[in-house]
UniProtKB/TrEMBL annotation:
InterPro entries: Poly_Biosynth_Transport. One of its GO terms (cellular component) is plasma membrane. It is a multi-pass membrane protein. It comes from the Bacteria. The chain crosses the membrane at residues 12-35, 41-58, 79-103, 115-134, 146-165, 171-188, 287-310, 322-342, 363-394, 414-432, 444-462. It is found in: Cell membrane. This is O-antigen/teichoic acid export membrane protein. Keywords: Cell membrane, Membrane, Transmembrane, Transmembrane helix. PANTHER family: LIPOPOLYSACCHARIDE BIOSYNTHESIS PROTEIN WZXC, PST FAMILY PREDICTED COLANIC ACID TRANSPORTER. Belongs to the polysaccharide synthase family. The keyword Oxidoreductase does not apply.
Amino acid sequence: MSLKQKTVYGILWTFADAFLVKGLSFVSMLLLARWLGPNDFGLIGMLALFIGIGTSLVESGLPASLIRTKKTDNIDFSTVFYMNMAMSLVVYTLLFFIAPYIADFYGQQILVNIIRVYCISFIISAFSTVQLTILQKEMKFKKITLLNVPSTILGVLVGLCLGYNDYGVWSIVAMYLTTQVILSFLLWSTTNWRPSFTFSIEKLQYHYKFGYKLMLSGLLNIVFNNSYHVLIGKYFPLQTLGYYERAQRFNEYPSITITGIVEKVTYPMMAKLQDDKQKLSVIYRKMLRLAFFITAPLMLGVAAMAQPIFEIVLGEEWLPAVPYFQILSIAYMFYPIHAFNINVLKVFGRSDLFLKLEIIKKIIIVVGIVVGFQFGILGLVWSGVLTSFLALLVNTYYSSQLIDYSTKKQLLDMVPILVLAVSACLLMYCVVDGFNNYQNGVQILSATFLGTLFYLSIHSLIKKSPMYDLLAIIKDRNI
């Protein structure tokens, strides 16, 4: 199978994984949100920082190094496997003992047991990280999707059963752990690779030299992105953190899902083209425009319909989360573009630039948080939008040094798409407002139909619209 075909099928199968398999998890979280309420999700929000740090430390950027390295053997994979397992045990032990201090910080003693149980996932995922990395390196996204299906279904069933029987926050913990256990088991039982009793310091140094900068960058990103959870959890009511956490997660589903597709498929694909910068730049531009063509109207559209969506899906209890959701939608609109630019740095092995730009972006975030905190919770949320756009400028500046696609060119490619997406959003908002006396379902369906019709109709009149690239991919004629 050619690289073009692998990329096309990779996109399609990763899309299926994201919107079908992960969609099941998303729907289950909607049901749990109706059964549990904001406080239980506020507790999960308090863990976000520590879960993110633990995950980054366990992986240490090593899987990314395996993917970009052209020639790897069993010694490479075994070395990374043992390193990941060792790190997972160290991280879990550390969090086990500091759990009481985290609980004291938030004033929520239940967090002690939640942390100690939830973080077992580090050990479980580390046990099968290499198998998953090999499948990604070989672009076998169909197999990854098919393995995710049973693990997700079983995890969701466990979570819903516990949630329905009033187990509260533990239903969320059980759902995640069950999914991880089943997926790890399936990866081991359906893949041929097994670790050998070999460990190479030389191989570890090679992969760690590239990976540790990604790890540090990831840690910075996690710490500063989750600083909002820490501040809200510390200085605002637990219920407020619950509203913010759900608003963020609901934004993450479409945006981060598309970002995940971008990262998983384009990274190994671009890694194979790292010696042909001209071809890489052409493909990069097509994929960037296509991603923004999808995410911009999607995120702005759901923001326009946020109130009826929240009311029909979660109930009136969650309506205070609507303003947070609408504001965050603007920030998450740019996430796939961040992923494209970061992948360029990783493909060319410039983890030094990766770390440098992360430091610059974190300085921007600190300033945004300090200023935004003065204006309360909404000020904090709006600061996230501003820092997301400024971070985009930083990312595009550094990636443009490696390929012939400057910040100016990237922005000019996005502006026409953004203008049409904003126009469609305004139309959808007017439809929702005009149908205010009708049922929520009527508002959502009417706004979606008219907004989509307007957006696609205008794009069909533009000769070089990314819509035609999407149609070509679907027909498997061009990439």
